[in-house]
């Protein structure tokens, strides 16, 4: 994923927003639309195939976010070529986002073309930028692997049903695994992970930002579900429950591990490996947020309706995926899993049979209670501190 060893490092500004931060936030704005489209797609395609399709689309778009984040990590923020490149790639993401609703129907070629186009433009631009340098090999290898997986996207777009899903899943898997292996190409070798440049503070901050954007998707879903439903006291309670659930996800991520990723990368003997594994952990958590947003929609629209199997899957799988990703992330950053989160994961799985008979709002309440269990020790300590110490001190 790293595009060369000769580029200047990303440097955070001492105060305010620097040019790189503004550029990255501009790129992230496209993912507000992406995540909203993904959760809406799942809501309108509640089936096993719909869930698998949503997973493939999320993985493809997450990979684009990842590679652009690594580009801005490697290249200097004042590089005008980088600003143009990221702006062009942002439009490619927008094109993919608007095609999500018909990605497995009439807009398959638009989605596939935008995905392949983003990677071809990115690799070609970096290959031109590194021309004449020893560091031109990494973008060349990545370009060749992009060309290798591109036919799967277009052949898949021409097909329908499970064949399309399978070919697109294989294409995404090729992109992930080739990068993990250092994009090996005969005669050109492969990237040595230990030599990759990694900006610990920058990458840690970028992961925090994209998780916050995911929480924003949950808020947008709350608003859209509320507007689409009659206003009742029960739906008001479901809205409040959805907010509490989202806040618990946020606190579960940021507590300890979310704050120590930069430190973990910095002290690792193989920084790129830690950063690369963080990609997979955050993919699970982001997918968990997308599925959770679909569950929020169901809980607000149909708080007391008898659930079907797919409703149960959405309401339970969302927090399960997030918690699994968070457990693996804690293991990566802290070197040990959180016992409370492991217990919470088991509790979420054990809740599945009951969720088949409970109305969505009660299942959501049980899920929130399980997530609160993870934070209970810290919440108790905070309340104890509030009792001992005044919130505001007199002048």
Helix content: over 70%
Q: Quickly give the CATH architecture of the largest domain.
A: Up-down Bundle
CATH topology grouping of the largest domain: I/LWEQ domain
Shape: globular
As for the number of domains, it is 2
N-to-C series of helices and strands: HHHHHHHHHHHHHH
Which parts are unreliable, with pLDDT below 50 for 5 consecutive residues or more?
A: 1-16
Assign the structural class, choosing from mainly alpha, mainly beta, alpha/beta, alpha+beta, or little secondary structure. mainly alpha
Count helical runs: 14
Kindly provide the name of the CATH class of the largest domain: Mainly Alpha
E-strand count: 0
Which strand-content bin applies to the residues? under 5%
Major sheet, described briefly? none
Mean pLDDT equals 83
Give the radius of gyration. Answer: 22 Å
Distance between the termini: 54 Å
Your description of this structure?
The longest helix is centred in the C-terminal third of the chain and has 31 residues, at 271-301. It is globular and about 60 Å long. It contains 14 helices and no strands. It has two domains: 19-195, no CATH class; 200-387, Up-down Bundle (I/LWEQ domain). It has helices at 19-44, 48-74, 80-99, 108-129, 137-158, 162-180, 200-227, 233-254, 257-267, 271-301, 309-334, 339-350, 352-355, 360-388. α3 (80-99) packs antiparallel against α4 (108-129), α8 crosses α14 and α10 (271-301) runs antiparallel to α11 (309-334). It is 76% helix and 0% strand. With 395 residues, the chain is mainly alpha-helical.
